[in-house]
Fold each of these.
Amino acid sequence: MQNKNMSNDLKIFIDSIYKYKSISIIGLDKNTGKTTTLNFLIHRLKNKKIGITSIGRDGEREDIVTRTHKPRIYIHENTLVATARLSFLNSDAVFEILDVLDINTPLGNIVIARSVYPGFVEIAGASTKNQTKYVIDSLNKLGCEIIIVDGALGRKTFADPEVTEAAVLCTGAAFSEDMEFLVEETLNILNLFSIDRVEYNTAKLYEKNMQDCKVAYVYADNSFKKSSLKTSIDASKEIISNFSDNLRFIFIKGILTNNFIQDMINSGLNLSSITFVIEDSTKLFVDKSNYDAFIYKGGTIQVKNSINVIGISVNPISPEGNVLNYNKIFEKFKMKSDIPVFNVMDYKSGCD
């Protein structure tokens, strides 16, 4: 049963979704309530002209990997859907085709259509960041007020602020039936998503110079040196060899891994004198122990673009049917985070 604090968190979350033109839904594991969260958002936004697309495939009756039953996506009349052509064969809503995009998928080109009658729909969207941005732009041009992107399992990169303005993080018993671990690991990911953004001038410098390189060095006199490296993955050796007392920023376009962080920690360099700048937190593939050790050694990582997580959706029921105590989960989250938290299973039919 929901208490006053839970109701207040839900209200804050609902109020916030109207502020954005695009929202992504990111699942930390299968069966964490991603599709149910999508259906909840569709229900709440039924008086808006919304667009829906997906990273990969969703909305099918049965999970194609686990062969387990899945909730289906239900759309109202006048909803715009961007999905692969063959997905319409598995949908019982009636559509009017508005556009066919030059984006190929295993199920055919991405088609944008408007629902003439409500019903269930299967969505199989684009697979890359740039393609998804193009789909969102196309939906915007067709008059959508809010666009929801259903992110695929583990594809946290689609919380990328260059793709959507805000994100909802889905977690739950399918991620872990250990309540302490569930909350701590979800908060660890949230904390990485909340890394500080660089100052405006530094962000503009990054944007201007990192179009054609993966690593660059910025010095105290504002001089700039680009690396010829083709990837950031093995950049640690070159960075260590280029370290100097007047180095202030190291710009990296690409991912940072545990190996990279460990190399920096073991280098013996004065990490407190420089700041590593990456595009956004989805490029940080580092576990908490390594990240904490890096910070302890004086290291600083900042981002060009910050990720705006506006809600944590919790599914307290595991695929095996075990149910965690949501009240306790809620309390543990609220002890350490101000992000609104709600129980996706309690509110799957909407709360008016």
Amino acid sequence: MTSSQLKPGKLKPGDTIGIVSPSSPVAFYCPNRLNRGIAALENMGFKVITGQHSRKRTGHTAGSLNNRLDDFHHMIRDPDVKAIIATIGGYNSHQLLEELDYSLISSHPKIIMGYSDITALLAGIHAKTNLITFMGPAIMPQFGEFGGLIDFTYHSFVRTLMKDTPIGMIDSSDHWTEEHLSWDIDDSRPRAIVPNTGMKILKPGHARGPILAANMGTILLLAGTPYLPSFEGKILCLEDDESEQPSTIDRYVTQFRQMGIFDQISGLIIGRFHSNVGFNEEDSLQELLQNATRGYDFPIIYDADFGHTDPMIVLPNGVEASLQANEERGILFSIEESAVQ
């Protein structure tokens, strides 16, 4: 970690976690799922407060822009709040980036976590403040799971956010799930799981550098803005959701190439895609990535447990990691320092 980077304080039982809805109003539509996510945090020993507007709906967003900003800034200012976790993603969290008080955030460094559209906030805040931010579970999709966090996600949460020692080796989960259950209607049982064949090597090699993790389409929204982080030397971790298809993923990775991002990174890790995306032998992820990264020799692995997949690891933006990928030793992905202090 460079001396200019900010580490938030670690979480401990009894700490307060603040919940905000920076983007979609799903909490308005699925109150039981939100309440179950809150209960899961309380069962883990945390106190929980929710943003005044976190359950609100204004059209397609969770309250107005000012509502969402007020909730976020309130959680930053509140000295009792040690972590801020998003209810869910959406499409519009990047609206907040122009209005955020980055000096306030820098002077009150806290854990800020979510994924999907929330990675616009995570990336923008990291770019403007050097605060380590966290791509990880959200309240409704993961904490709101029947029975709380899946064990693999729970252990990653504890190891990353509650310990000030190096995070260490990142292994693949034994099982995973992509079963969809209708929230607040048909989600009163665990989802069906299937065996996980683990991370796979597309291009072998060795990489070392800080992690930068984001949803593909979301971080590309920041192109040409002051909120796009530096990619220099990063181990870039990218994923996207089940609404995409091979053609749109191809478009995204081509844009990364043409922006010169592949000239800058040290390694590339791709999160597991939902089967609805539609990759197959004729239209394969492997061929798409090989074409987009032609001429580059950094290591590439795919089918990693982060992003729109369950369970998931927590990835800290800005924390030093190493990646070794070869057929003899397999994949060794290690986060080599703590993400909190």
Amino acid sequence: MSERVIPIITQPLGNLAIPQSGPNTAWQNGLTLKDALSRPLHDLRISVTDRCNFRCSYCMPKEVFDNNYQYLPQSSLLSFEEITQTAKSFITLGVEKIRLTGGEPLLRKNLEILISQLAELQTLNGKPLDLTLTTNGSLLARKAETLKAAGLKRVTVSLDGLDDEVFKRMNDVDFPVSDVLEGIEAARKAGLGPIKVNMVVKRGTNEQEILPMARYFKGTGIALRFIEYMDVGATNGWRMNEVLPSAEVLQILQTELSLTPLSASQQGETAERWGYLNEQGVHDTSLGEIGFISSVTKAFCSDCNRARLTTEGQLYLCLFASQGYDLKPLIRSGQEPEALTQAIAAIWSQRTDRYSELRQQEPDVSTNDEGAANKRRKVEMSYIGG
């Protein structure tokens, strides 16, 4: 096996030009906005910070994100008011779900103020916005009640194992599992549910945690989702032979658990859902469910309906993108909100991104070395938001 090389590449490669919309191409209120592959805009993920207190090797490896790493200056970050105004434009175009991400979003000071502002917004149908947050759980125990009071609906917690040594090795800052579990319990008591727990599975690192995780969360009402180790960014040294396909994870689970496939709960859902069978062989919803996010081995680009807004106002149309669209000048221009809405509509309408599908067609993606899928420079997940 060749020596792993982690490049020092952490910033996006410039910006793409925002398409101009003319009288005959401008989006009109009441129309369903779709991209070039007929995918609607439904979900918006907003990164509120590029900082994180973990150093997970698959996202922010310590070799790159060390004490000398330069984070974005405060002046570059969108204010809460700017984020809310931008969210209104996305909602006008059909967005019904907003997920706050990072970095670690709970590191953003006074985040509950932003949540309270977003919680006041309604979808085009007059329904409450589906407002969620993804967190590593490290600060959740102390903030769960405040987040709920501000209007947050639910949380997704990243947890890559129950064994303390495995988990500490993966977060690389010696953070204990018990504190994350305490945060999950605090979120449950606060009513931030249904809660989801995401486990990134990396072959040779934490696959032995698959069954213990399933045992622990079975019957708790918490959905456990297994995520294939992805080639996001350029600093995690991704290799295909470290990917444990979801099909193999399912086989491991079925050595002990009886599972049945479930239908998707909504269009564009990233996870393939499975439920538990009881002793009589009948699906029992009280036992919870398991999900598989398989963007490496089973791409779901065809119905991807998500856009991503970075903490400094860059719009990305794919988790694996190399470039984004800088909306900040337009956000801060003082123009009427319609100008921003039309710009977003023009960007989305020409979207053709389907990286995961194309990755599967690359000849050396199945090799044990860093193949073609890792040679393309991509924006870091800590910048774009997971």
